[in-house]
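quick one, two chains, predict together pls
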Amino acid sequence: MTINRQWLLVSRPQGEASVDNFRLIERPLPELQDAQVLVRHHYLSLDPYMRGRMNDAKSYAAPQPLNEVMVGGTAGEVVASRSAAFAPGDKVVGMGGWQEYSVVADAQRGVLRKVDTSRIPLAAHLGVVGMPGVTAWYGLTQIIVPKQGETVVVSAASGAVGGVVGQLAKARGCRVVGIAGGPEKCSYVERELGFDACVDYKAHRDLKALAAALKAACPAGIDGVFENVGGVNLDAVMLRTNAFARIAVCGMISGYDGTPIPMANPSLILINRLKVQGFIVSEHMELWPQALKELGAMVAAGQLKYRESVAHGIAAAPEAFLGVLKGRNFGKQLVKLV
Amino acid sequence: MTINRQWLLVSRPQGEASVDNFRLIERPLPELQDAQVLVRHHYLSLDPYMRGRMNDAKSYAAPQPLNEVMVGGTAGEVVASRSAAFAPGDKVVGMGGWQEYSVVADAQRGVLRKVDTSRIPLAAHLGVVGMPGVTAWYGLTQIIVPKQGETVVVSAASGAVGGVVGQLAKARGCRVVGIAGGPEKCSYVERELGFDACVDYKAHRDLKALAAALKAACPAGIDGVFENVGGVNLDAVMLRTNAFARIAVCGMISGYDGTPIPMANPSLILINRLKVQGFIVSEHMELWPQALKELGAMVAAGQLKYRESVAHGIAAAPEAFLGVLKGRNFGKQLVKLV
C-alpha cells in the first residue's frame, strides 16, 4: 500500500501566514477507479497567488477550504491509468496540490496536460513555459502592448513572472527596467536576464527615493508597467509614467497579509491618461497555446533565461512558500519530490 | 472704439480657489488685421477642468498663464471678418476665453467652428452638443463600451457631462444609476433624465453608507463607471464592481483643491479585474464628428434632455465658476453676455 503525504490548510492567517496554518498528514492511496489516472508528482509549484487563497475573503477565486489539500500546480508522471487519454510514463502538468500523488478523473481532464520534455525540462512547464510564463506573456502582449523604443518597468523582476516579462519586452525592442530586492537579484536581472537596469527597492525604501531611482533609470519616462507588488512600488512607478502609459496589474503582494495599501495619487490616472488593468491568466485559456508556443520555442533555443529555487521533499513546502512571500526565493520556487 | 472686458487670472489658489484669483479689466479692441475674425461672445462655458489649469502643477495641459485672459469655451457670432472662411453673422464656437470679444486668426482656424443653430440652440453647442457631450460620449462608448443589460454608474449625474452619459447608456439598454448631491438634483436625474435610480451623496457621507446605498441601487453590481469625482465616491463604487468592470476616469473634482485623495483599496483592480482608464476628450478630435452627429440628432429629436444654469454678464463669471466647483450649478453652467 502506497502512502501519500499531503499538506492541509488547517487555519487562516491573522496577518502574516505561518507554518502553523498547515498540517502534514499521511493517507494511503485509494484504489484507482475506472476513468482515473494516478500521477506521481515530481515537482510542486509555489506561487504568490496561494497567499490570497488562504484568506476567507471575496476574491476572484474561492478560498482554499480548510482541512483539504492545499491548492497548487504540479508536474509529474503518470504511474497508473484507467483512462484511454493517458498512459503510464506520460509526463504531465496539472493542479495536483501540495501532495506526493494525485488521482485525476477523466471528467477533470482539462486540468491535466501532457507535456513534451524532450526539449524543455519538466520543471520548466511549471515556470517559464507554464502558468508564470503565460502570465508574463498575457500582461505584456495583451494589456501593455509595448511598442519598440518604449520603456517597460517590471516589479519582482527576478521572479518567475517578472523575468519573463522583461525578456519578452527586450525581444520587442523596449528599454526594460526591473525592480528587485538586493544587489544579488539586481545584478542577476541586469547581467543574466539582460534588463537595461534594475532598481534595488531595499536601497530605496520610501516613495521619494524610489521615484528618484526610477527617474534615473528611465530617462524617457515609463510607458508600460507590469505590477506584481503594489503599494509604494506602484506609487513610485505612477509618478514617472508618460501620457498613455499602460499598467498591467498582475499582483499586489505587498497587501496579501491584509495591510491596507492605498494608492497615494490616483489623480495621476487622469493627469497621465493611464490605463490600469487587472487580470487573471486562468481566465484567458484561449490564448495559452499561442503563448506557450512562443515561450517554448524561446526556451528550446536558449533565448529565454530563468532560474529556479528548489526545496527538497514534501516536508519543505510551507517554509519554501513563506519564503516566496518574503522574497527569499530567487526565480521560480519549486519543491522537488522525486 | 469698442471696449472688451476680460477676466485675467492674477494669482494661483492656495487650497480653494476664490474670486481674488481673478481680475476684471477693460481693453479697447485692436483693429482687425488681414486673415482675422472678430467674434462677439454670446455665452461663456464654465467647466470643472478650469480649476486644474489654475494650478502651476504638471498636468495634461499647460497651466493657465498668470495675467492673461482665463481660458474657456465660447459661443458667439462673427461681427467682422477679414478671412474668407467666415462672414459676419456666422454662429461659431471656439476657445475665446473669459471675455466679451475675441480675435481669431486664420492660422488658428481649428479652434473656431461654425455651428448650425436652426435645430440646436447656440448655447447647446457648449454643452450637450459640445465638449461636455462629446466627453460623455467618448468615455461611455470608447472606454466603458456598455452591453445591453449592464449597470452603469455615473457621478455628478445632474451635470453637463453626467446627464448625457446616463441618457446615452439608457439608449443602449443599460440600467443607469446616478450619484448627485441633494434631493432636488436626484429627483431631476431620475424623473427628467430617466435614470433608473440616483443616490444622494449628501445623505451618505462616508464610504460604508455610500457603498450600502449603491448596493441597494445596483442589485446586480456595477459593470461600468463614469467617474467625475474621485475620493470616497470612487472607493464606494469600486467596492460594488463586478468582474471585468470598466471605469472611465473623466475627472477627480474632489481633489482639485490639492486635498490628497488616495484610492483606499486598489487591490480591487486585481480582485475584480477592473480596467481603470483616464482620458481627455480633446486628444480624440478624430471622433468628434461621429459623436456630435449622434448627440445633435438626439437633441434635435428631443431625445436628449439637459438643463442649464445661466449667470448674466461678464462680471458674474468667477462666482459662477466657483459655484461649479461646489456643485451649486444645476446642469451646464453658462454665462450669458448678449
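Residues 310 and 334 of chain A are 5 Å apart (CA to CA).
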